Amino acid sequence: MKSKPDPSDADASAPFLVLSGVKKSYTGVRALNGFSMQVARGEVIGLVGENGAGKSTLMKILGGVIAPDGGTITIDGKAHDALTVGESMAAGIAFVHQELNLFDNLDVAGNVYIGREPLRNGWMRFVDRSRLHSEVAPLLERLGANFTPDTPVSSLSLAQQQMVEVAKALSVDARLVILDEPTSSLPLAETDRLLEVIAGLKAAGIAVIFISHRLHEIERAADRVVALRDGELAGTLERDEISHDRMVKLMIGRDIKAWNSGDPQAAPGDVVLSAKSVQTEAYPLRPVSLDLRKGEILGLAGLVGAGRTELARVLFGIDPMLGGTVSIAGEPIRLRDASDAVSRGIFLVPEDRKGAGILLGLPIHQNISLPDLKSHAKRFFVSQRSETEAAETQRKNLGIRTPTVSTLTSTLSGGNQQKVVLAKWLAMKPRVIIMDEPTRGIDVGAKAEIYRLMRKLADSGVAVLMISSDMEEVIGVSDRIAVMHEGAISGFLDHHEFSEENILLLAVGKTANLAGAA
Amino acid sequence: MTKKDIGLLVLILVVGAIVAILNPRFLLPNNIANTSNLVGMFGLSAIGQAFVIITSGIELSVGSMIGLVGVLFVDFIATEGVPWPLAVVLMLALGAVVGLAHGLLVTKLRLQPFIVTLCGLLFYRGIARFYTQDATAGFGFGQEFPGLDWLTTGKLYGVPASFIALVIVAVVMWFVLNRSVFGRHLYAVGKNEEAARFSGIKTHRVIITAYIICQVLTAISAIYFAMYTRSISPSSQGNFYELYAIAAAVLGGCSLFGGEGSLIGVILGVVLLQELQNLVNLLGIPSSLNYAVMGGVILIGVILDQQLGRFRERRRTAELARRGAETAKA
């Protein structure tokens, strides 16, 4: 079971992994479109690409979780059409995921050998704890870990926990370790430790695929960069070519398609909502300030996990505000819960449509009237006629496609469900509408309708804050863009400064290249 | 009435007819009055239970509260000389405070309803036993409270007062559940608390109110039970009554996951349970088998209901598939 490359092996110079022409589509969406790459033994590959470029599909194919529609995967000279989870593990491919899969009630050794514990002889088959610990100790030593096999995982830092995951990979004689966004939740000092671990793996002849949005880490760690864009290989950079700017160029660099909500009819008006030094629970040390003006669509861009949804939840009163002030038309307001926001005309269309946006088990008209039942009630009783009439108005207004408004919301398509979420707020008097990923999982036609609705709303004097991870959407729909990076706003872009490059630069914490975009 | 309610009603009538044929005493006015008295008393607490179950909670302390309120109420009016209207108000207030406490623990401290009310079940029983030093609370010889007696154990045209109370409470609560803003918020919170919160509903307030309603109704039923039994043993009064209430609510279509349940169904559930009790007595089944009969019938009922639901669902899908195939051909 020795897996270290043997110099006498004739195949040692051949690449460990070759992907050629790998294809995968989900219903109507091409996630990977003939992607090819190679990984040599002991090579550290930096894999970069925007959200939705196809990285996670690629990882699932390598892990054997999904089968590609076409192409071949060659490992150690053996070609496969698809891998099973078992084949992937047997070939020595190990994953360290962004979300750690550790049992924090066990110690380090127990986690490394979970499900494969060495057992004592005898009918009781007790776990042989001393052997367990003596086998894990050298692995930790190899990684330069500063903790012992009997340390409880719950007492380890995030980087140390990641080391446990790497140790797990080593314990199965991994030959390719895939690190999926390992540093996204790490403080900078701990990131350095992880980069050392990567160097250690490389020295032991183990290949590494390192996926990260933090491009400067890739600059430091990678031997070669592979960039994915729209499911295709956008290009590779050799060690001496790797630079931040070149990676960004490869990741974007396509034409912006005609995603457009139409131009605003008038210049934006006064500030409606003003957030000053707002601190969220996710990033208490990074206060956020922004102004939303009447009649504008402000796009809020950034990488997943940059703190955009958390900001939206605070502005809507769902999560507590740890500090700062929120004012409506210059008047500071208290946000104890969502009803405080709703009563001031601040509405949220949440990211999780089915979980938080609508009640799937209720008919359309009851969803629409839910936040405003009091105004449908005469004295004590809710008037069903008033509810139905209000829902009918919204159905015509938004073009919700349904036989009647008493249809169960669960039977509607995603786009129509999203319209119901919008309808419940439009039936009241919106001043600010925050839309978190408003078109996620919605087909193209409905998307365009939602964009038009957003513009109509803005033209009627509503301030719209649109959170979106879709570059084309942010650029095509927004009047102004704010970009968040690790909890703080790293910059605002006016219309003439819009470019994918500028957004991406701000999203990774650099400054925008304003001269170039003007 | 929903399909489920009608099914339940049919079941009640069929069982009733069989019992009546086997033992005609079932239909005697006295027997019916007795049974409806029990339906009234158990029904009051079952309605309260339904409110909590609709929020996807559960209230296990009902039986112990029936014991505690019974002991306190009888002691207040029989021994301490508290005027009975004041005692009634105090008992309802006690129920409200207990409900508020449970609601706050469930919402603000995010404790599980099962745990909170299980602790309540133990706690209130202990307090009840401690308060009377385990002695039975009762009335002195010849002690009478005409107004109270008429309101609790009296009859109007042969209908027991407790049953009339149930009908009044049920009508009010039907409107609360089905027509009021609060009722709509209650179902919304039970179906999906997160989405309700994102619609600006004060979900905590809704849940707390449900626990208060439950305990106030329980206090009312406790007074009826106290005046019915007239001597209250603190260690056994109301034992298991929470389970009757939960069983009735589930029979009546409440889902323990919340968001579902009709008031009519819950009351029919109570009627069915009391009919079964009565059946055990009238058909000469050993009364020790009482619980076994009830448990068996509830289980069969729930299984039937679920299987019927699946059958209907399958038939619907098959119908859709057939229509789909036709359009594909066309």
UniProtKB/TrEMBL annotation, chain A:
- Domain of life according to the entry: Bacteria
CDD domains on file: ABC_Carb_Monos_I, ABC_Carb_Monos_II
Question: Taking every annotated instance into account, which residue ranges of this chain make up the domain ABC transporter?
Answer: 17-255, 266-511
InterPro entries per the record?
AAA+_ATPase, ABC_carbohydrate_import_ATPase, ABC_transporter-like_ATP-bd, ABC_transporter-like_CS, P-loop_NTPase
Which UniProt keywords are given for this protein, alphabetically ordered? ATP-binding, Cell membrane, Membrane, Nucleotide-binding, Repeat, Sugar transport, Translocase, Transport
Keyword match Membrane: yes
Q: Which residues form the signal peptide?
A: none
Q: Which GO terms describe its molecular function?
A: ATP binding; ATP hydrolysis activity
> Which family would the database say this protein is a member of?
Belongs to the ABC transporter superfamily.
What is the name attached to this protein's record? Sugar ABC transporter ATP-binding protein
UniProtKB/TrEMBL annotation, chain B:
Bilayer disposition of the protein: Multi-pass membrane protein
Q: Does the keyword Transmembrane helix apply?
A: yes
CDD domains, from UniProt?
Answer: TM_PBP1_transp_AraH_like
The record's Gene Ontology cellular component field reads: plasma membrane
A family per Pfam: BPD_transp_2
Q: What is its main location?
A: membrane
Q: Which residues form the signal peptide?
A: none
Instruction: List where in the cell it is found.
Output: Cell membrane
Q: Which InterPro entries does the annotation name?
A: ABC_transp_permease (IPR001851)
Record protein name field: ABC transporter permease
Q: Which organism is it from?
A: Pararhizobium mangrovi
